[in-house]
């Protein structure tokens, strides 16, 4: 698990740093939020299609990871309030085994997906909103809690060199999160000035 985590963090960090640095080197301050759209008309359109397909695959998986606990909570609470709601029916598909389908589950999850899709379409400045969310979640979830758990687990004494370095890193990452959050909020405010609903060109 430790090796897999280290490898995944290394690969992800390398990928994002390369994208960020290359995008800035190529486009400067006018780098597009979606780096793939910054190349204009190109003969290698298939590369953009493959990259966009990879993004869709990534987001579908991430959406499931984040949405499943919410779905489970909603379905559990609904089952408590309305005990008969979790009754389902068998769905038969030719050449496949039948499976049980729950009407409430189907409807509630579909409505959730429709609502989140509409919200995403209403807010076309996705990158800035994502930046705000990322800035809010980065320091506490990626830095502070893991570091504090590590310090407690390894019983690192206060004011030791290791403890001081780890706390300094935590403070530095907090400052980065604050600056990134402020930048993203400014981006959202600027986007709101020229905002048109359901438009990607605003």
Automatic annotation (TrEMBL):
Pfam families: Aa_trans. Residues 1-189 form the Amino acid transporter transmembrane domain. It comes from the Eukaryota. The chain crosses the membrane at residues 44-66, 103-123, 129-147, 168-190. It is a multi-pass membrane protein. Keywords: Amino-acid transport, Auxin signaling pathway, Cell membrane, Membrane, Symport, Transmembrane, Transmembrane helix, Transport. One of its GO terms (biological process) is auxin-activated signaling pathway. The keyword Transport applies. GO terms for molecular function: symporter activity. One of its GO terms (cellular component) is plasma membrane. It is found in: Cell membrane; Endomembrane system. Belongs to the amino acid/polyamine transporter 2 family. Amino acid/auxin permease (AAAP) (TC 2.A.18.1) subfamily. Carrier protein involved in proton-driven auxin influx. Mediates the formation of auxin gradient from developing leaves (site of auxin biosynthesis) to tips by contributing to the loading of auxin in vascular tissues and facilitating acropetal (base to tip) auxin transport within inner tissues of the root apex, and basipetal (tip to base) auxin transport within outer tissues of the root apex. May be involved in lateral roots and nodules formation. This is Amino acid transporter transmembrane domain-containing protein.
């Amino acid at each position: 698990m430790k090796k897999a985590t280290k490898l995944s963090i290394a690969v992800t960090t390398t990928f994002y740093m390369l994208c960020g640095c290359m995008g800035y080197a190529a486009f400067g301050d006018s780098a597009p939020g979606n780096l793939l759209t910054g190349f204009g008309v190109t003969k290698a359109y298939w590369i953009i299609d493959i990259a966009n397909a990879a993004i869709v695959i990534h987001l579908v998986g991430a959406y499931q990871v984040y949405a499943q606990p919410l779905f489970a909570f909603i379905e559990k609470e609904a089952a408590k309030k309305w005990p008969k709601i979790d009754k389902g029916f068998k769905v038969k598909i030719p050449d496949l085994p039948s499976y049980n389908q729950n009407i409430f589950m189907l409807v509630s999850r579909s409505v959730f997906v429709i609502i989140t899709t509409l919200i995403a379409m209403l807010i076309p400045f996705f990158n800035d909103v994502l930046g705000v969310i990322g800035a809010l979640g980065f320091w506490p979830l990626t830095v502070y809690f893991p570091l504090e758990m590590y310090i407690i687990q390894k019983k690192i004494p206060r004011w030791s060199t290791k403890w001081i370095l780890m706390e300094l890193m935590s403070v530095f990452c907090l400052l980065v999160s604050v600056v990134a959050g402020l930048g993203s909020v400014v981006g959202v405010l600027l986007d709101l000035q020229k905002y048109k609903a359901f438009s990607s060109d605003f």
